[in-house]
């Protein structure tokens, strides 16, 4: 049986000594220990050394606190990766994608708040729109139309987020003792009924697994398609250039 979430007890604060910033910072500290799912107002009060009513004064329910945590995560989160460069669009976009994935994979709290909880939130979109604009501009300079540049970056973003979220859900299930039948663990197929499936599965390939192999294969497919679009656009533009000459 899983142990209930607990928080380290601090000396009790004086009444009125807590503020929203302290509460949010403490919530991040506590979430690192017990996870976003197990974060609760009573646990947070114990962690901060205040009565739970002091927290409810600023955040009437857990969802309000999670909204504030998400806003802070979105405001402070910056991908540790160089911008997508037009002159080296393929490698720089691949590096950007790998850095995004590495950052989220290494921080479950960011993943839970930004990718899972706020995946469809308008504020999540707005928080990164300047970075997306720069990436799309570089892809247009590299030879894609604005529409294809947008779709390419969007596909990379969805691929990264999908890979991270699937891995995060797998980790949650495994922690809960439900991971034995996950696709990331399973070798599927038999030599008699599905020999090809059994062969590649035994070699480490996984259907639906959010592993490095599947991530890199999918990323390569997106980049290959973008490269083909750029090449096709270059070829179609060449006759026009010659006629102008």
TrEMBL record:
DNA-binding region as annotated in the record: 40-59
Report whether Signal shows up as a keyword of the record: no
Cite a single GO MF annotation: DNA-binding transcription factor activity
The record's section on InterPro entries has: DNA-bd_HTH_TetR-type_CS, Homeodomain-like_sf, HTH-type_TetR-like_transc_reg, HTH_TetR, Repressor_TetR_C, Tet_transcr_reg_TetR-rel_C_sf
Q: Where is the HTH tetR-type domain?
A: 17-77
In terms of SUPFAM superfamilies, this protein maps to: Homeodomain-like, Tetracyclin repressor-like, C-terminal domain
Q: Name one GO biological process term.
A: negative regulation of DNA-templated transcription
By what name is this protein known?
TetR family transcriptional regulator
Annotated organism of origin: Mycolicibacterium aromaticivorans JS19b1 = JCM 16368
Lineage start: Bacteria, Bacillati, Actinomycetota, Actinomycetes, Mycobacteriales
